[in-house]
Amino acid sequence: MIVIFHFAFQVALYNRFMAAPLPRTKAILQAVFVTILWSTSWILIKVGLHNNLPPITFAGLRYTLAFVCLAPFVLFKPSHRLVLKKLTARNWFKLALLGVVYYTLTQGAMFLALAYLPANMVSLLLNLTSIFVGIAGISLLKESPSRLQWTGIGLAALGVGVYFITVSLPQVQMIGLGIGLFCMMMNVVSSLFSREMNRGATLPSLVVTFVSMGVGSVLMLITGLIFQGRGSMSEWDWIIIAWMAVINTALAFTLWNRSLQVLTAVESSILNSLMMPQIAILAFFILGEGLTDKAIAGLALVGIGTLVVQLKPHKNM
Fold it and tell me: What is the pLDDT of residues 150-178, one digit of tens each?
């Protein structure tokens, strides 16, 4: 009942704010809405992993089912079929590569890291993404952040540092830390590559999501089945997978790719860091993961940094 009420509240907020007149405002609010959906995913993932679902197979099932859900909306629409027919070999290669990086490597590593580490820890590691995206985006995407945006990035980085000080990592979780760092690096590559693919809106966001997710999810599912097997899934596990596939993946990733047509890589990455306080709050109340005073201070700094970076649009926008 709580999950249903939470989702209804999200839909109400989305319908209310999507009436905003400015495309940039819509893109920001749309991205924020997606972060709320994705934050609930972390809790559902931890519940599934607690039920002994194999991490890679779990992730593969989620994204493959989401790909199947998207198929009718792409294949039954003449304009989207026409786009698919006109895709060049270079387009197919770039979309397939995006799928491998964005889904197989990044999402697969995230599920695996969550099998070893608390949700708050993995969220912390992924919030380092915005720092590296800001630096790499200068040369790779020619999107230099403004001074105000650098201030926001600095505050977010400081918040991550304050939060990290509060974390005590047991020796047995070092494997998870390594996987989490790899996930963060792949998330940096994904953020830059996704922005490069989506800016200019040369391809419909739904087509980008459909093709890249199809390649990445199927590869991830095959990998999971080969190395981890099917596991034993209850009816509740299938409900979690179905919810995450339809709402938190098929819908959310399409909306996210659409927002990337307006937002820069740094802006989308900073907005994505909103998940950190959202996940911490959900993990505290649902999973029982504790929050110290320093952790709360770190979360507050990340939130302030996220707001500051949005106060002044990029000069090219």
Answer: 888 888 888 878 877 766 667 778 899 89
